[in-house]
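To illustrate the input format used throughout this study, we show a single complete record. The first block contains the structure-token representation of the backbone; no residue identities are included at this stage. The design step must infer an amino acid for every position from geometry alone.
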């Protein structure tokens, strides 16, 4: 059974898609990157839903989720919002899959809500970014600052940005262009992004990352220009129970560029962890 709907969680309208698989005990929660949405997983979801229960969330203020100014757009609050959604759906345990910025929110879930998140799959996850500098944070209080944010993000153009995040430029088509252009159609998202500049607390520190005990699979594009492989290697070092896989001839949009490979790697990772858990519990 599949459905898409909005649900009010922690004071904001949260859009999610739920693909239920009655034969699977495992749930994957998909979290997209900056200026993206569930759209970025459209090639991966059809593969994953054959093996798992899949829930894909539009993180506020992106996609079809709310864009109100009263919500706190910090990573820790976004992580708590995702967990609250899962609890409201009666899901007590899940595996979290995060791409780019979504990976940072996934790691916040693994750190702050370990009783709910069993495993993490990080796809070209952001890492080690500091909080916005004070002058930029103070500028966010200037009236109409959201129009500057809109201009800054739109200046280079969606097509040029896509060329920067995919290895094979021939895969850029009208569907991709429209899907990633759609956030620029309304001003509300840029007002909310102004709040995100103000609220974003910076990525998890090395000390915080080393407190994460959940098994993590890191999947990276060899030619990622947005979050270079060196970030993946550093995360692999700081996350005590992690494995790093680097995909050749691949850029930053791993879910778009290599969905079949990502699907197979996730299957292998979850199967291996289930076997390890069963061995530890004396089931095998």
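Output of the design step:
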């Amino acid at each position: 059974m599949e459905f898409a709907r909005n649900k009010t969680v922690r004071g904001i309208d949260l859009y999610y898609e739920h693909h239920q698989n009655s034969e699977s005990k495992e749930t994957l929660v998909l979290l997209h990157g900056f200026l993206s949405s569930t759209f970025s997983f459209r090639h991966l979801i059809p593969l994953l839903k054959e093996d798992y229960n899949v829930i894909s969330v539009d993180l506020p203020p992106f996609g079809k989720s709310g864009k109100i100014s009263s919500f706190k757009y910090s990573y820790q609050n976004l992580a708590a919002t995702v967990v609250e959604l899962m609890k409201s759906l009666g899901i007590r345990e899940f595996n979290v899959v995060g791409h780019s910025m979504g990976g940072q929110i996934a790691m916040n879930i693994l750190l702050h809500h370990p009783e709910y998140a069993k495993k993490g799959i990080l796809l070209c996850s952001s890492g080690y970014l500091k909080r916005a500098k004070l002058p930029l944070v103070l500028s966010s209080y200037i009236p109409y600052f959201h129009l500057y944010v809109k201009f800054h993000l739109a200046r280079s153009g969606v097509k040029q940005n896509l060329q920067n995040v995919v290895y094979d430029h021939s895969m850029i088509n009208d569907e991709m262009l429209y899907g990633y252009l759609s956030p620029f159609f309304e001003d509300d998202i840029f007002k909310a992004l102004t709040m995100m500049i103000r609220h974003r607390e910076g990525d998890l520190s090395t000390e915080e990352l080393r407190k994460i005990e959940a098994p993590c699979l890191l999947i990276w594009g060899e030619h990622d220009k947005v979050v270079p492989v060196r970030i993946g290697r550093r995360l692999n070092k700081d996350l005590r129970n992690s494995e790093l896989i680097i995909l050749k001839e691949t850029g930053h949009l791993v879910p778009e560029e290599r969905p079949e490979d990502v699907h197979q790697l996730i299957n292998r990772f979850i199967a291996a962890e289930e076997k390890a858990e069963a061995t530890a519990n004396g089931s095998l």
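Structural context for interpreting the output: The chain has twelve helices and eight strands. The first strand starts at residue 2 and ends at 9.
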